[in-house]
Amino acid sequence: MSLEKEAPEDKVAVIGMEGEGLDHLTLESQRRIAAADLLMGGERHLARLPGSSAERIVIGSNLKEIAERALSGLKEGKRVVVLASGDPLFYGIGAFLIKRIGKERVEVIPAVSAMQLAFARVKEPWQEAALVSLHAKPIENLLPALEEKGLIGLFTDETNTPDAIARFLLERGEAGWAGWVCENLGGIEERVGAMTLEEMARGRFALLNVVILKREKPTDAAGADRPVRWEGAFGIPDDLFVYRRPKAGLITKKEIRVMSLAEMGLRRNGITWDIGAGSGSVSIELARLCPEGAVFAIEKNREDFELIDRNMRRFGIKNITAVCEQAPAGLEHFPDPDAVFIGGSGGEMAEILSLCTARLKPRGRIVANLITMENLHHFSHFFKEVPWEVTYTLVQVSRSKPILEMVRYEALNPITIAVAKRKGEG
């Protein structure tokens, strides 16, 4: 077999590599690597090519530089090769390079991906599995897959390790999962281990690994509330929630929830706070509208706080973290929010607003439901001293109610929806 250099190619060759050897590479891949004038790849990829005289650039967090150097190399008439793991278009560098320098300048030669190898090793069909990358991403990105699938493949990193993932699941009551950790796939130190979450949480693993999770039993504990399946996008009917029911009904009513949510400027991956969460109706709506984000709820009343967990289980919600404390105590442990909902202040309105305005991310909003004149006064007085834009909407909702053979309207308590944002932010 001849690997002599040929005429320069006019495309960047993005070549997938599997394991530690080169025998799996096609003849064309071997030819392109041997002929390269510029080789770019991870340290472990470049280490496999000790005899190459090509210029080498190690790929790390310098992806922009890699794209620029690949393009300039082509313009200089160089043969450019980028080495990647597995399939470069499956959570790999291939998509990034195509976006930066164009499809017409890139050729992709894939190998078997690490995810494909992992499912082959554990002998599980993966056509119905959810595939999630936690590489340099929040671990909360796992949450939507937990609700939708019973089989999940996970790419990890040095932060979201198998043991960290297992602890994350156990802390959220997801003890019904087991799985496999597949380390150094394709290499001489390959190891595949089946284990429970408890075992995974105690383990220590090689940096290069793939995790596969499989649901073994339902998550809900015995005696939990029957799950609720509601297909709407938002505006969940009040009677689907578990909540304390005096005459007025201690829940943020559907109509008020919908209007408040519309004012919050929500993003699918946003961090939201629900202060004075009550039984969690707003938190549940937020979690459904932001499936790739996380909701942090705080409620001082123990009876209401326990209902948040029941409602989470009813709706199969996993991306809510709730604490039983009186705000602003407890908020210091929450990550900075993209949006804040205030449903109750416990008499600490000024202190809560002071903390929220300091920690709210740029272009974020604070939305408050103000029932009493006193809370409206405290809210408006605070923002007289703080140069933010504030709007107030007084909402009066009446619902139809049958009376004998007729229908009349019954009014709900009027409420002010206040919206605050920094001046100049949309």
TrEMBL record:
EC category name: transferase
EC identifiers of the protein:
2.1.1.33
**Mind telling me which InterPro entries this protein's record contains?**
4pyrrol_Mease, 4pyrrol_Methylase_sf, 4pyrrole_Mease_sub1, 4pyrrole_Mease_sub2, CbiE, Cbl_synth_CobL, Cbl_synth_MTase_CbiT, Cobalamin_biosynth_MTase
| Catalytic reactions on record | guanosine(46) in tRNA + S-adenosyl-L-methionine = N(7)-methylguanosine(46) in tRNA + S-adenosyl-L-homocysteine
Gene Ontology molecular-function annotations: protein methyltransferase activity; tRNA (guanine(46)-N7)-methyltransferase activity
Pfam families on file = Methyltransf_4, TP_methylase
Q: Which residues form the Tetrapyrrole methylase domain?
A: 13-200
Swiss-Prot/TrEMBL keywords? Cobalamin biosynthesis, Methyltransferase, S-adenosyl-L-methionine, Transferase, tRNA processing
Q: Name one GO biological process term.
A: cobalamin biosynthetic process
Q: Identify the pathway.
A: Cofactor biosynthesis; adenosylcobalamin biosynthesis
So what does this one do? Catalyzes the formation of N(7)-methylguanine at position 46 (m7G46) in tRNA.
Q: Which NCBIfam families match?
A: CbiE, CbiT
Protein name stated in the entry: tRNA (guanine(46)-N(7))-methyltransferase
- Source organism of the structure: Candidatus Manganitrophus noduliformans
What high-level taxonomic lineage is stated for the organism?
Answer: Bacteria, Pseudomonadati, Nitrospirota, Nitrospiria, Candidatus Troglogloeales
By which gene is this protein encoded? cbiE
